[in-house]
Design goal:
The chain is mainly alpha-helical and 203 residues long. It contains 8 helices and 3 strands; from the N terminus they run ααααβββαααα. A hairpin with a 4-residue loop joins strand 1 (121-128) and strand 2. Helix 1 (19-48) runs antiparallel to helix 2.
Amino acid sequence: MAYQVKDYSQILGMQGISDTTLQNHFKLYQGYVNNTNTLLDTSMRLFSEGKERTAEYAEIRRRIGFEFCGMRLHEYYFENLKGTGAPDTNSGMYKQIAKDFQDFDTWKKEFLAIGAMRGVGWAVLFYDTRADRLVNNWITLHHEGILPGLQPLLVLDVWEHAFLLDYQLDRPGYLEAFMRQVNWQEVARRFDASAPMQQRKAA
């Protein structure tokens, strides 16, 4: 079954991230969905034709990770936008941040420091269910830096197309605007869905 382009028009009208930037971003996201479907279909066709040992098949399989991760990370990003920017201090996710980073401000400082690093990519707050801890990490492009088995909770796009139109080279201005628009309810939902059952009951 082909992946479908999701409608994120509900996040239009944000302060700090213009509708023009978002509309352009939606088109880029659509390209990742379309490319993912095309590569998967082409890969299956080549495999069915007995061409799995060809250079064409190998390159297509390698490219799938880039396109798929680009698709999925954009979905996480759009879905954790247009909130109030204020987390629920009683949520299990907020308590986990305080446990793993001393306090929310310390976590935010590290997360934004990662987002401000040179280069294109993503800053992501992950939850490691095995170790029961949160980890901030940088993803280069879309697929280099994914931590196996960890659930993305908060996803920040720091490719230039996410901020250049609105902020030119003022990446810190974009980062602060992003933080003011975080949908912490969605972030907490992701955490609750991935947290161990006993932890969810105790929260």
